[in-house]
Amino acid sequence: MSSERKRGPDGRPDGRGPGAGPRTLAEDLRGRDDAALAALLRVRPDLLSPVPGDLTQLATRAGTRASVVRALERLDQFTLQTAEALAVVPTQGAVAREALGALLPGAEAASRLPHALAELRARALVWGDEEHPRLVRTARELLTSPSPTGLGPPLAEAAGSAKLSPARLQETLAAAGLPGSHDPVSALAALVALFDDPERMAALLAQAPEGAVAVLRKLEWGPPYGAADLNAPSPPVAWLLERALLVPAGPDASGGPGGTGSVVLPREVALHLRGGRAHREVEPVAPHVTAARAHDPATVDATAAGQAMTALSTVEELLGYWETEPPPVLRAGGLGVRDLKRTAAALDLPEPATVFWVELAYAAGLLASDGEADEVYAPTPAYDDWLRAAPAERWAALATAWMSATRVAGLVGERDAKGRSLSALGPGLDRGAAPEVRRRALALLATLETGSAPDRASVLERLRWERPLQGARESREPPPERAPTPTPAPAPAATSGPTSAPAPVPVPVPGGLRGRLARLALDEAEALGVTGRGALASYARPLLEDATREAAKALAPHLPRPVTEVLLQADLTAVAPGPLERELATSLSVLADVESKGGATVYRFTPASVRRALDTGRTAAELHAFLTAHSRTPVPQPLSYLIDDVARRHGQLRVGAASSYVRCDDDSLLAEILADRRSAPLRLRLLAPTVLASPAPPDQLLARLREMGHAPAAESADGDVLLARPDARRTPPRTPPDPVPEGPPQPDGSLLAAAVRAIRAGDRAATLPHKPKAPTAPAPEGGLPRTVMAETLATMQSATLTGSHLWIGYVNADGAASQRVIAPVKVEGGFVTAYDHTADEVRTYPLHRITGVAEVTES
Asked: Where does the Helicase XPB/Ssl2 N-terminal domain lie (predicted)?
């Protein structure tokens, strides 16, 4: 046996084709200028943690699985398709670029291919010279195990997994009409040459019995695995198996229980059936975002501004409610389900909408936990500053917090990877991709004509094309452990072909969380007033440039001016024709209950609401004066009578601690209470003509008497009336939660420049010539020279690409040393799978037991 592979200056195989080029990714990086290295570190910032010591370390880190997966997730659809095509390109020599063009046909694809390759090269996913691009080994493994294109393994790998004997291969050659060969390697090479020749392959399939080609078509676009009865296959399947157009696969390749096993369609056969295409549909051009409806820009801004005012009032109402009735923090963190329901009822909103406003207030720093022993959620001191700001500035603060927040309110109620329910304000809601998706969705809306609402499906399709893999892992259960073969599907009928069976996928599948984040972003933008009727508001465009002040200035003219008067009506209601000034709104919300919201807010006066105002220390005269000062119309007589009647009875009864007592100067009123059956649970007893005593606590006694229609007032030990003005709860100073970025933060220019200088310096130190070491003892005659692990691994990987034969020294588990001649097929996970010419079978060897490796030279 011989090998004519090109050797590098150090005598090692370089794995290159006829053209000159780097032998490894490290050499490729060494040939790039500082600007290219800085660009690589900018698009893959995870390579900087910590700063690599030299270019070899940088190349090693760039080839790790986690880093490569992260880099693949940031590719657009066509660039990803280019990488997938590179992963399955049948030849890796001088015609690699030509073969890549055949896998991605079309004029648009041809014009976009150089850009896609340049993008892959800039991200260190592709290396080598321009005409012989090579995919990083880890990326190749991720994109071929199995391939997202639906292609199965090459014939050589499939035959090795099936452990086809040399005799079986010779029978396959004869069945395919090929001459016999002297070894399995040449037999497989002859079959591959047949499958790669379109004319000869067409002639072979023309001889197939009826139904055979239909069987292949079932697996043509994947998954490439299927189930069939291998002990008694149908005539079409038997004909295909005899010619290796289908190859047994899996642990039941020889027939499992009932004769069922799995089969695989070799990659070369699938490519012929597809006409050489790697993908069913090549997508070289980004989908266009189309407009679904066109609105008047003024209408869009007015609608969005109305939503902005609603957003402000909702946040104020939420935090105003929680400042007097703060909900407790769960032991595991977050807001309890009951407290969420109670808050949603108070805001008159659905629970998902309530969660959004709660999370938005938290992201803006207006809400936090107080950190006390009985921890509760309450407004922060920043809430008071926010209230004092102008409405447009308050909205801009909310919108800015929403743009940068990584917490996703739409995930509340679902379960995390450990099966725990995700709660509002609790852990597990951060998704690092959320800010980028929101910003990108709004940027796509900004590309349309002013006032145009997009077709939402086109927005989602464009976002999918830009990052088809991003976030896909979040959307499904963790993948099963990788198995050497796929799980067979249920056995079909004896006359049918193989049934397609799913196989484990080690890389994210397209879609997933990114599409969901986009849908949530569009819904939340409408609720917040960033969009109106689906179109981007003009005043929201500065948010894309992080110009918060400009957005506030642009919004201000669209907001209605606060009003200082209401319309009092005879049905005990008050209508606010617009947003009220803060002091007026606060006072009126104590004196009346909000009945309905919208462009005009309707308040209703009730005995309970009037008593609530009297409990704060106001008198009836003050309430009359307040209404007269802020009403455009005269105060209706029924409202005046209501205030006077409640005020006359307010405080007539006095409740104190005895456990509790009731005191009243009107003994007939106390007699009425004692005779009322509703007072029975209070167990009242008459201590004096004007005093009743009860074992119930004062607060319960107050509540029961109010339910009975009375208006009691609490008093102190001195007999003074206790005012029931609720205290506004505030937390200690709190900072807004820090967004959780997706991966490492983006490095700035100075950090990149310093990192490149450090890597260059370390690389120069590592590659300087050193004084040669003392010669080691010569290897025994006929023995192999020992090689270090790095050289052994590089030589093995190079041989898998070129199909060369290697001479290795191997020490088995018993310590016995031997020499073998192998043809490596796959190097993965510390093992090399190869055809062992000595044993005449495919074997797997641990790399750490290989003492040395060398190319087979001519004998």
From this structure: 566-687
Task: Count the alpha carbons within 13 Å of 683 in the hemisphere toward its beta carbon.
Answer: 7
* Cβ pair 743, 749 in contact under 8 A: no
- Residue-wise pLDDT for 206-263, tens only, equals 999 999 999 999 999 988 988 888 888 899 999 999 999 999 986 543 333 333 578 9
Q: Do residues 797 and 137 make contact, with C-beta atoms less than 8 angstroms apart?
A: yes
Domain that holds residue 352: 291-469+513-558
Q: Which of 625, 634, 638 is nearest to 572 (CA)?
A: 638
Q: Are residues 535 and 635 in the same domain?
A: no
DSSP-derived 3-state class of residue 623:
helix
295 and 443 housed in the same domain: yes
Residue 206 and residue 199: Cα distance in Å, rounded?
Answer: 11
More reliable by pLDDT, 651 or 553: 553
Residue 587 sits in the same domain as residue 672:
no
Residues 6+ apart with CB under 8 A from 249: 158, 161, 162, 225, 261, 262, 263, 264, 485, 486
Which stretches within 616-650 are classed as H helix?
620-629, 637-649
> Would the pLDDT of 341 be above 50?
yes
Vertex 68 angle, CA 847 and 767, to 5°: 65
Torsions phi, psi for 323 (to 5 deg): -75, -20
Clarify whether residues 527 and 575 are in a common domain: no
**What are phi and psi for residue 819, nearest 5 degrees?**
-115, 140
Structural domain contains residue 281: no
Per-residue pLDDT of 662-683, as tens digits, reads 888 888 888 888 888 888 888 8
Q: Is residue 261 part of a domain?
A: yes
Q: Are residues 263 and 366 in the same domain?
A: no
Task: Please report, rounded to a whole number, the percentage of residues in the chain having pLDDT higher than 70.
Answer: 86
Measured between alpha carbons, how far is 278 from 266 in angstroms, rounded to an integer? 13
Do 527 and 608 reside in the same domain of the chain? no
Residues 550, 446 within the same domain: yes
- In the predicted structure, residue 27 carries a pLDDT above the cut 70: yes
Q: How many domains does the chain have?
A: 6
Q: What is the pLDDT of residues 587-615, one digit of tens each?
A: 888 888 888 776 678 889 999 888 888 88
The pTM of the full predicted model, rounded to 2 decimals, is 0.72
Long-range contacts (CB closer than 8 Å, 24 or more residues apart) made by 161-168: 161/249, 161/484, 161/485, 161/842, 162/247, 162/248, 162/249, 162/253, 163/253, 163/841, 163/842, 164/247, 165/841, 166/840
Quickly count: other Cβ atoms within 10 Å of residue 661's Cβ.
19
Residues 459 and 386 both lie in one domain: yes
Q: Residue 366: name the closest of 422, 319, 298 by CA.
A: 319
Higher-confidence residue of 210 and 802: namely 210
What stretch of H or E contains 317?
helix 297-324
- Residues 519-538 pLDDT 10s: 999 999 999 999 999 999 99
